[in-house]
Write a structure and sequence with these properties.
Layout (H helix, E strand, L loop, with lengths): L1 H10 L6 H22 L11 H21 L3 H19 L6
Helix pairs in contact: 1-3, 2-3
Length: about 100
């Protein structure tokens, strides 16, 4: 997936600074959150996913992978590291929370 994003960015000349990529990611997560809030009536009903949520989730994934491209880090590698960190927390604490 990361290679597809990197190729897309290169093809369409969409390079951006890390700060811009980070702000874009936060913005997209906010848009996804807004769709979830609307779909659940502010948590008053069960979540039923819809097309708009899937689109926003896709935008979040693109933005995250684009950020990783600009940071020159491998998404799969940092995911493996995160999973190992959470595994160790679970082993020692019984959950994955950092506190």
């Amino acid at each position: 997936m990361q290679k597809a994003v990197k190729d897309f960015i290169k093809e369409y000349k969409l390079q951006a600074d890390i700060q811009i990529r980070c702000l874009d990611l936060v913005s997209e997560v906010g848009e996804l959150s807004k769709e979830i809030i609307k779909a659940t009536n502010y948590g008053k009903k069960a979540l039923a996913t819809n097309r708009q949520m899937f689109e926003e989730a896709g935008d979040c994934l693109f933005s995250l992978l684009a950020l990783f491209c600009e940071m020159n880090v491998d998404a799969e590698d940092i995911l493996k590291r995160a999973l190992e960190k959470y595994k160790q927390r679970f082993i020692y604490k019984g959950d994955i929370n950092s506190s």
